[in-house]
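Notes to self, S-layer homology domain-containing protein:
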Amino acid sequence: MKARNLLALPIVAMLTLSFGQSSFAASTPFTDLNQVAAKDKIIALQEKGYVHGVDGNRYMPEAIMTAAQGIQLIVNTLNLQADPEKAGGPAPQVDPDEWYADVVQIAIQNGLELPADFDPDKAWTREEFIHQLMIAMELQHHLPMIKIAPVEFADMSELTVEYQGAIQRAIVLGIVELDADRKLHPKEEMTRADAAELIYHALEYLQAHQGPIKETPKP
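result:
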């Protein structure tokens, strides 16, 4: 059973994946990853400074990720920057005094589309996180919009229609892996372990497929 009460943990402790942070090696390894399939990936991210625990010894891999936490994770990991000149789409109504107000605005300015009834405390599902992560990657890093043959998997009928394209691309690019039964589990709530594994694959892909530098036209 996933520990829902972990949602009450401070946000700074819950999410600290950052694309631009300095690399460092943790002095104390996490002690709660022994039964976690993504253990090596979480440790690799930690050693590079992308992941921190809720304290020196615990990562709490089964803690559930909320929508606000997911947006913060994507904004920080992909190093999305505030740009007031980018109008973006319509922004959901959020309390400007809340900790997530700035990252929501940054997400909108960088092309992410959030629902008008955006609920920051809603537990994000795997399909919601994958969709938003892929859209942010494609916009920020100008990934090519490839034409693909849809991948068949056991629970694809459970996908929300508007998420199908991004999720299919994530599978083809190797950012998302199906389980042994060829299932994605799109409606399952996203955990910190799930998020770390997806972020690991996303960063790995971006590192291996950096786009060409655009030349500045000569006068």
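- The chain has one domain: 4-143+190-208.
- Confidence is low (pLDDT under 50) at residues 1-28, 212-219.
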